[in-house]
């Protein structure tokens, strides 16, 4: 009896310790994020030399840091999700690589696109400096809140579209509907459809090519020794062009001939490096699809790292671009007509915030993109990553405003729907028409139980989880209007307070 009571007491203590541990883990991430935001506020106060508008810059720095955390938590899943979902990287490894390359891209080549955002989306002649500051502040806070909500519910959304919606909403609240450049908004809305469709099509095409050249061959090892270096060459060439035209646009803007030559040179170098590596790795490898797929693991990790670098270089402006506009406006006294400068301390808040956000809150979205849409292996994930880079380049060349988030998720959808189509086609190939004169009895359902088993087998051929498709698509559609409405409300509130 005494032993039984003691066991119960020990179980209660053990349960209390487990609950305390879980609560501590739950509160640790928000606590660390709060410390970062306080540090950003202190840094901003010293950077502005305690001028009369220091409090506005401090508020803007806190909001920018909050937005940077949300960019890291949501957007990084697009690059690392396929690598984690295919088991090419562990979650910890993905977070470390993404944090390093995202921060490096933001600090070394962080783009300053706030001039484009302000001048392309808002067409009013000139705003007063106070009005412009409030427009940017409301837009930044609204987009951060929306991305935070999307991350909480597990929906990968476009932070660029959230910022676009925020700027438009706060601009409308300040000067009416005429202030918005509606053709530009129409182009953004078109990208809702174009981005995922292009990403899915390219990813499916690459997967078909890999199946035709390697995994569909009888001698997969020999085919892999020939074709894997070719795919690596394509990857290195494409990413060289990608980084030259997108990721390093702030520090280097080469002409088209230089860019193409750079792509060819790095493609050849990738092929020369991959040839002996593939032969060495495949020397004792079994002639099976699962083993051949492992040859794509290292290229997949490299592509994820390069995508993270390019993402940090480009999308850090979503977090700190409006803050840079606020700082420049307060220093010069001019509104949207001012040329926006990007101080290092502003850029550092964005870089550190993105790295911190992905480390603290990124795993949930990484699992959504990598594991909960469709099953990925190294080959499918590699096709999705390569598709993302090529689609952005093609869209940029055609002048289409596309979202890297939509492209990456669309690429995952593309490989999933291709597998589903191929699986259903294989099943239809062995089916028997019901009006056939001579029917093989083995093809019919002998019992209701067998009919149920076959129905479940067909159901399992839905290799893309439909609920995630519908949920993500709905989040995409409402991102711009939701951010716009929220920004308009916040602008009106800030206008009364400040």
Explain this structure.
It is a single chain. With 498 residues, the protein is mainly α. Helices cover 79% and strands 0% of the residues. The longest helix is centred in the first third of the chain and has 46 residues. The protein starts with a helix and ends with a helix.
Q: What is the compact description of this entry?
A:
The protein contains 17 helices and no strands. With 498 residues, it is an all-alpha fold. Keywords: Membrane, Phosphate transport, Transmembrane, Transmembrane helix, Transport.
Q: Characterize the largest beta sheet: strand count, sense, and whether it forms a barrel.
A: none
Give the termini separation. Answer: 69 Å
Number of strands: 0
Number of helices: 17
- Following the backbone from N to C, one meets helices and strands in this order, namely HHHHHHHHHHHHHHHHH
Rg, please?
Answer: 26 Å
Gross morphology is globular
Membrane topology: Multi-pass membrane protein
Family: Belongs to the inorganic phosphate transporter (PiT) (TC 2.A.20) family.
Subcellular location: Membrane
Pfam family, one: PHO4
């Amino acid at each position: 009896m005494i032993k039984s009571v003691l066991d119960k007491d020990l179980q209660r203590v053990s349960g209390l310790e487990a609950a305390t541990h879980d609560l501590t883990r739950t509160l640790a991430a928000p606590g660390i994020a709060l410390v970062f935001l306080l540090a950003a506020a202190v840094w901003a106060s010293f950077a502005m030399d305690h001028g009369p508008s220091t409090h506005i810059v401090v508020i803007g720095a806190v909001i920018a840091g909050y937005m940077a955390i949300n960019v890291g938590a949501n957007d990084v899943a697009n690059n690392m999700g396929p690598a984690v979902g295919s088991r090419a990287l562990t979650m910890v490894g993905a977070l470390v690589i993404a944090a390093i390359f995202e921060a490096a891209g933001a600090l070394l080549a962080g783009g300053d696109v706030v001039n484009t955002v302000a001048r392309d989306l808002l067409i009013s002649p000139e705003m007063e400096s106070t009005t412009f500051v409030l427009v940017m502040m409301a837009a930044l806070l609204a987009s951060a809140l929306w991305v935070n909500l999307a991350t909480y519910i597990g929906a990968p959304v476009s932070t660029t579209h959230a910022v676009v919606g925020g700027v438009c909403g706060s601009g409308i609240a300040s000067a009416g509907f005429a202030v918005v450049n509606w053709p530009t908004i129409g182009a953004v809305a078109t990208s809702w459809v174009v981005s995922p469709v292009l990403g899915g099509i390219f990813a499916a095409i690459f997967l078909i090519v890999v199946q035709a050249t390697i995994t569909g061959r009888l001698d997969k090892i020999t085919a892999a020794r020939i074709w894997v270096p070719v795919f690596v060459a394509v990857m290195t060439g494409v990413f060289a062009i990608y980084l030259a035209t997108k990721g390093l646009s702030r520090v280097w803007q080469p002409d088209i001939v230089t860019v193409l030559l750079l792509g060819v040179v790095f493609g050849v170098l990738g092929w020369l490096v991959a040839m002996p590596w593939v032969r060495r790795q495949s020397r004792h490898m079994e002639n099976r699809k699962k083993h051949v797929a492992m040859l794509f693991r290292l290229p997949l990790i490299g592509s994820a790292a390069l995508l993270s670098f390019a993402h940090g270089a480009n999308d850090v402006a979503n977090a700190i671009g409006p803050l840079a506009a606020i700082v420049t406006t307060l220093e010069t006294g001019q509104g949207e007509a001012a040329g926006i400068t990007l101080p290092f301390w502003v850029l550092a808040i964005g870089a550190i915030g993105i790295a911190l956000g992905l480390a603290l809150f990124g795993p949930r979205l990484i699992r959504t993109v990598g594991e909960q849409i469709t099953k990925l292996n190294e080959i499918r994930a590699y096709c999705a990553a390569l598709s993302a880079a090529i689609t952005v380049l093609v869209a940029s060349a055609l002048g289409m405003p596309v979202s890297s988030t939509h492209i990456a998720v669309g690429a995952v959808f593309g490989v999933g729907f291709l597998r589903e189509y191929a699986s259903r086609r294989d099943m239809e190939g062995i089916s028997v028409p019901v009006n056939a004169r001579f029917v093989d009895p083995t093809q019919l359902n002998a019992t209701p139980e067998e009919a149920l088993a076959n129905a479940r087998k067909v159901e399992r051929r839905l290799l893309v989880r439909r609920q995630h498709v519908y949920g993500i698509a709905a989040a995409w559609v409402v991102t711009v209007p939701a951010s716009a409405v929220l920004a308009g409300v916040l602008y009106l509130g800030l206008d009364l307070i400040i």
